[in-house]
């Protein structure tokens, strides 16, 4: 693969990632989350903040792919490269949003997955659209990149004086968060979200992804929810999301879905709860759906 092709591929793939971030931000109504009509349970950010954040991350999305396309070392070596790059991206994001954390989790995951995409394309000479097997190879490479991540990052937590909320959740409840999801090769995407998209009618992505959001809220370990409301609140949101899925489906009318999610949004706003982990997975699901040419 020559340099010109690498540049074109990095641009093409990173544009899909940026599109995914913008699609997630615009998706509405999202219970407890920021969208064009609601700030959800957030008082420090709005839809414009997410647009600014996405724009700040855009050049780094390209760099993540480029690093993967040119990497010739070990999976852990690639992880070290993109983690350092990801910290720069986070700084650019926080500078653009005046310190507001909009995409920290999404940036972490896109750094891993975009670099793994570039590396897998380099090794296997993949072309777009990807097959499900191609996508699985990327998740498998991320597993290699992040092997031992939890053990390394969370070593000696008991001796630390100041803990992040992710560290507190791990220490108190064994909640592994996005690090655990990455180390397992993103099972929420591989085993749940993407099979759902592959077997659904994708003619109305807005409707489809709102149903997928509920499905993710009903199933995943969302550290954002747990941090804001505790274990009980998280379990209650999971239960309510599952109950909504019993009455709603991809065949529900647009009005039925919008009304139900608007009410759920109002409830989560009152309870100060935001399923940010599910939102990040929506963006990642959209990205891989586009890579596979599903819509």
TrEMBL record:
GO terms for biological process: prosthetic group biosynthetic process. Keywords: ATP-binding, Nucleotide-binding, Transferase. Pfam families: CitG. Coiled coil: none annotated. GO terms for molecular function: ATP binding; triphosphoribosyl-dephospho-CoA synthase activity. It catalyses: 3'-dephospho-CoA + ATP = 2'-(5''-triphospho-alpha-D-ribosyl)-3'-dephospho-CoA + adenine. Its EC number is 2.4.2.52. The keyword Transmembrane helix does not apply. Belongs to the CitG/MdcB family. This is Probable 2-(5''-triphosphoribosyl)-3'-dephosphocoenzyme-A synthase. The gene is citG.
